[in-house]
Amino acid sequence: MGNKLEEVGESMEKIGSSMMGCGCLLTIFVTIPIILIIIFL
């Protein structure tokens, strides 16, 4: 029983870290155009 819980926890951590990575990419893709717009306007 404990073994299964550990496996679920590990997979949740992997999913969480990959979600964080996607969030970082999204914020970069969103902020770069905004910065460029601010610079060029």
Summary of the model, kept short:
This protein has one helix at residues 2-40.
Key phrases:
mainly alpha, 41 residues
Describe the structure.
It is rod-shaped, with a radius of gyration of 18 Å. The mean pLDDT is about 85. It is built from one helix and no strands. The chain has one domain. The protein is mainly alpha-helical. Keywords: Membrane, Transmembrane, Transmembrane helix.
* End-to-end CA span: 60 Å
Major sheet: none
Overall radius of gyration? 18 Å
Assign an overall shape.
rod-shaped
Keywords: Membrane, Transmembrane, Transmembrane helix
SSE diagram, text form:
Elements: H1 2-40
Keywords: Membrane, Transmembrane, Transmembrane helix
Transmembrane segments: 20-40
